[in-house]
Amino acid sequence: MTVTQTAFRHAMLDPAATVPHGIINPDGAPATKRFDVYRNNVAVSLSDALEAAFPVMSKLLGDEFFRAMAGVYLRTHPPKSPLMMFYGEAMPQFIGRFQPTKKFRYLPDIARMELAMRQAYHAEDATPVAPEALGAIAADALMSVRLGIAPAVQTVMSDFPIHAIYRANVEADAPKPVMQPQSVVITRAGFDPQYHLINAAGAACVETLKKGQSLGQALAAGDDTLDLGAVLGLLLAQGAVTAIY
Amino acid sequence: MLDATPSSSLPARPGVGYKPQHYAAIMDQPAALGWLEIHAENYMGGGGRPIAQLRHLAERFPISVHGVGLSIGGEGDLDKDHLARLKHLIGWLNPASFSEHLAWSTHDSHFFNDLLPLPYTAKTLKRVAAHIDRVQEVLGRQMLLENPSSYLAFTESEMSETDFLREIAQRTGCGLLLDVNNVFVSATNLKTSPQDYIDNFPLEAVGEIHLGGHDEDEDETGAPLLIDSHGREVVDPVWSLLDYTLQRSGPKPLLIEWDTDVPDWQILYAEIEKADQALSVVVQ
After folding, report:
1. What is the C-alpha to C-alpha distance for residues A116 and A236, in angstroms, rounded to an integer?
2. Among partner residues B48, B51, B110, which is closest to A80 by beta-carbon distance?
3. For an engineered disulfide with B144, which of A63, B106, B111, B175 has Cβ 3.0 to 4.6 Å away?
């Protein structure tokens, strides 16, 4: 009796399924509890990976609820690669559609922010320019300048106060979140990603710079709420600018 | 097939599975610690702290790269992207050894983060050998293949695990990684003798030995069901089985694996010292 890996996989992900014929204990009898070792290993290890990836979401939802939800996620979205450090990439979409959580409309953006923090943590290293480097550029040439942006730099835009919600779950004595749109830019000066509050125009400006467009184009990407000087000051101070050309 | 000369250059000393929380203690170069093992997949990001730490560790210690994601026992082809990532890691790190498992973990492009079992047949032998040939060709070096922990058996199996591994090593020129805790777990679970397993194992092909802790449970008949958890101390019968093995194999690189409920360094180091003691009584 051949046990295909398709049959094994199907039974492993479905706790109610019958153990494939051809799998036995040493006495030749069916081996349900022995097969359960694999069911348990897979569920626990993937749930652990999700819990490590989404600590803030786990705190917001409570550990017990998060583990139960992870059990649904890992069966509908098993990893597509052996790099567990990036597992959970479909969590924002999943949590926005999952019936028990879809009413918490800020959660997908919190999931996006947690994914972005991990991307930043594992991003390639880059050597920053000196913070004062932009000051050497003549004023009339400034708008045509392009910047190299460190690979760790990420932005997340939201209609919800994601910066305040995230902060309230990782920092003691953080202020209580107040309903308002917030965006964040994530930088990594050393090895630990830092998240900074920025407005939507600032986030759009950073995304324009990341694409290799000029400061003039980045300015045009924002509206009158954009403070280009403040955005550039933040990026330079955080070691997020790697080249000026 | 690759030249059968073992390319593992790990010292016949104790090593430990590296955990970032022990970085500072390890950089103090504790006397009994001879080398480190890392899980390949944890060092496949672009950069940041994990890669920086690994570069520093590699300046001080021989490194063994242990893969958990290649799915060598899989029915499908090897994941080309993953093999390329592995080649990149092995390329810049130039580790003392590379090892993987006799198991599968990926099917239909989905990865299950566990080491899943396969039956031992002429068909699976051919497939595993082809996968190992491919890995050694892409990496340009010999790899070691590790014996799994077994919880169940397949009616379709046609040969013993030791015969299967011997044949794989002969066909591909790969070396073997002998996990004596896995031997003990499998023998208990399948009601066989762990000493017989060691007696039948091609010890001349062994480039590394693993030791770890397991959990104890029972199946529905009340028979013992040991689970390879890597979450506690190595038990006395496994230390005895190690002694039995070393008497026959001579000194080998020994690894302590502790991957879940990772303890303080002092507790882990006590295990390393026990491994050092086991090696010190083996006649060269």
Report:
1. 20
2. B110
3. B175
Distance from A122 to chain B by nearest Cα, in Å? 5
Of the candidates B47, B69, B220, the beta carbon closest to that of A82 is on B69
Q: How far apart are CA B151 and CA A191, in angstroms?
A: 41
Whether residues A34 and B106 touch (CB distance < 8 A) is answered with: no
User: What structural domains does chain B harbor?
Assistant: 14-280 (3.20.20.150)
- ipTM score assigned to the predicted complex: 0.94
Distance CA B143, CA A43 (A): 30
Phi-psi map region of B263: left, alpha, beta (phi>0 left; psi -120 to 50 alpha): beta
Q: Find, among B32, B88, B87, B23, the residue nearest to B57 by Cα.
A: B23
CB nearest B113 (choices: A23, A26, A42): A42
- Determine the residue among B66, B218, B219, B225 to mutate to test chain A binding: the one whose Cβ has the most chain A Cβ atoms within 10 Å: B219
Q: Name every chain A residue with its beta carbon within 8 A of the beta carbon of B75.
A: 4-5
pTM value surpassing 0.90: yes
H-run or E-run covering A42:
helix A32-53
The string of pLDDT tens digits covering residues B100-139 is 999 999 999 999 999 999 999 999 999 999 999 999 999 9
For A30, the closest chain B residue by CA position comes to B152
Q: Which residues, 6+ apart, have CB-to-CB distance to B189 below 8 Å?
A: A26, A34, B149, B150, B151, B152, B224, B225, B226
Cβ separation A34–B69 shorter than 8 A: no
Q: CB of B63 within 8 A of CB of B35?
A: yes
